[in-house]
Write a structure and sequence with these properties.
An eight-stranded parallel barrel has the order 1-2-3-4-5-6-7-8, surrounded by seven helices. It starts with 24 loop residues before the first strand and ends with a helix. Helix 7 links the parallel strand 6 and strand 7. The protein contains eleven helices and eight strands. With 293 residues, it is an alpha/beta fold. The radius of gyration is 18 Å and the shape is globular. It has a single domain, classed as TIM Barrel (Alpha-Beta Barrel).
């Protein structure tokens, strides 16, 4: 049975004059490191003032290995004031040959996590570079496997099979599944060379999550190495996080949440508490800056 989250979200997005919009600010799983005990994860997020945390299947399995089950994780996180609001990450769904037993188990785990924590969308991406028609068909199948109660949120990544926003929107449009949506991440946005005009063809309601971070002055080679270990806190780099938030706001994009995904080996090496505080401060600064424009 799904256990819906109940919490009071902070103003984690520039808000209209009537103050009606309140969005949760979430610290994504990678931001705090891959080997952080569940209790340490939620304590660091709570101390930094986040409204919730993200959790990967691998984090979930690690917590299970310590004796926690999904309900215990749900209650522990909610009790700390940082419920699980983001679950991830489904990959290798593009070809039947890639959906081996391990991938199928991971997919089912993510579905189960979402229902356990009351999260209604799941993050996904596709590294393999396949014909668009093949990706469309496979993405539609993934949405069908998820079921009508869960939304599959597709993230474009410049080094992946879905390299930009236009491709991601084409996959969604042609798959034609109501339980599909898009993720916009500052790092991928900047490295894919996107501009505000690229948002114009996309219906605003299909952007379900925005991820804040930033990029180095010079791209690394390969790009994926930078993405998975050398991101900067939002506003501390060269990706114009404030500009992206303003562009989304100008188009009345109201995501379900704002996540902070700063995947940084250097930041994590300084400790989970330091990482949480640093990115929370940076994210609030970006959001406040965007709201003042």
């Amino acid at each position: 049975m799904a256990m819906p989250n109940s919490f009071t979200a902070s103003a984690a997005w520039p808000i209209p004059a009537d103050g009606a919009l309140r969005l949760p600010l979430v610290v994504s799983s990678y931001t705090l490191g891959t080997e952080v005990p569940f209790r340490d994860r939620i304590e660091a997020a709570a101390a930094a003032g986040f409204d919730g945390i993200g959790l990967r299947a691998e984090n979930y399995w690690d917590a299970e290995a310590t004796g926690l089950d999904g309900r215990a994780m749900f209650e522990m996180a909610l009790g700390a004031g940082v419920p699980v609001l983001e679950v991830e990450y489904i990959t290798s769904w593009g070809r039947a040959a890639d959906r081996d037993a391990a991938q199928q188990h991971k997919e089912q785990t993510v579905f189960s996590m979402a229902r356990t924590f009351g999260v209604r969308h799941l993050n996904t991406g596709l590294i393999e570079k396949l014909p668009v028609e093949s990706m469309v068909e496979s993405f539609a199948d993934l949405c069908d496997r998820a079921g009508h109660d869960l939304t599959i949120a597709l993230e474009f990544m410049p080094y992946s099979g879905v390299p930009d926003l236009a491709t991601a929107w084409r996959v969604l449009r042609e798959a034609n599944r109501p339980n599909s949506a898009l993720i916009v991440d500052v790092w991928h946005w900047a490295r894919a060379g996107m501009s505000a005009a690229d948002l114009d063809p996309v219906p605003t309601e299909r952007i379900i999550s925005v991820q804040l971070c930033d990029v180095l002055a010079t791209p690394m080679d390969p790009l994926r190495t930078e993405s998975l270990g050398h991101r900067l806190p939002p506003g501390d780099g060269y990706g114009d996080a404030v500009g992206l938030v303003r562009a989304l706001q100008a188009r009345n994009v109201h995501p379900r949440l704002v996540a902070v995904e700063v995947i940084s080996d250097e930041l994590v090496s300084k400790g989970v508490d330091h990482a949480a505080r640093t990115v929370a401060t940076a994210a609030r600064r970006v959001l406040e800056g965007a709201g003042s424009g």
